[in-house]
Amino acid sequence: MDAQDMEVTWYRNDLSGLVHQYRTSQDHLEHQIPEYQGRTEFLKDNITKGHIALRIHPIRPSDGGEYGCFFESSTFYSEVQFEMLVTVSGMAPHIHIEPGNNRDIKMTCISTGWFPEPEIQWKDPQGLHLAPASETKRIEENGLFHVESSITMDRSSRTEVSCVIRNLILSVEKVVLVSMADGLFPKDSLWAMWLTLVLFLLAVGATICLLLVRARKSKGK
């Protein structure tokens, strides 16, 4: 059905406002919701076949919601209601490592750019969940989620842990793996060896200084 002479209107049910309107072969945006100004484009390449579309760009998390669209002419009317879901898979997570108390280390998994709120988990090599020490999720200025989750591990542990962040709508997950290898955190014996070496060098230096002082005093006599 040719729709080029019809009025085509998109609107938000939940906001009770106009998203985009096309009539008399041109756009009419005088009453468009301010949030959509400059972001909508009516695609009418196949309008003579009754196929039209509305592009919203750039998309925002707030664009998700209930919409309606209707075609209308003097002899025809058709309307449809639908819900649009907005979802984003964020950046690949990265791990920040810092010393904890005593023999512990603290690992923090960080990622940003998710919508809606993602699920974040720590897992051991067998895929079992590890309880986080802390977890924070906040919405940034762009409407997307920034997430952080921390876990505390024993410094002597020699295992692998993974941080998994999952978009539950898309069933997409992003993973980062950390191997608690021997080279990542020095063993206590290595620290003890270095400490012994430093103390030995200090003792040697003090002895040499003492001998030099005595030698100068002997020459003075």
From TrEMBL:
The keyword rRNA-binding does not apply. One of its GO terms (biological process) is regulation of leukocyte cell-cell adhesion. The keyword Transmembrane helix applies. It is found in: Membrane. It comes from the Eukaryota. Keywords: Disulfide bond, Glycoprotein, Immunoglobulin domain, Membrane, Signal, Transmembrane, Transmembrane helix. Gene3D superfamilies: Immunoglobulins (2.60.40.10). One of its GO terms (cellular component) is external side of plasma membrane. The chain crosses the membrane at residues 191-213. Residues 1-69, 83-179 form the Ig-like domain. Its main location: membrane. One of its GO terms (molecular function) is signaling receptor binding. Pfam families: C2-set_3, V-set. Belongs to the SKINT family. This is Ig-like domain-containing protein. It comes from Lynx pardinus.
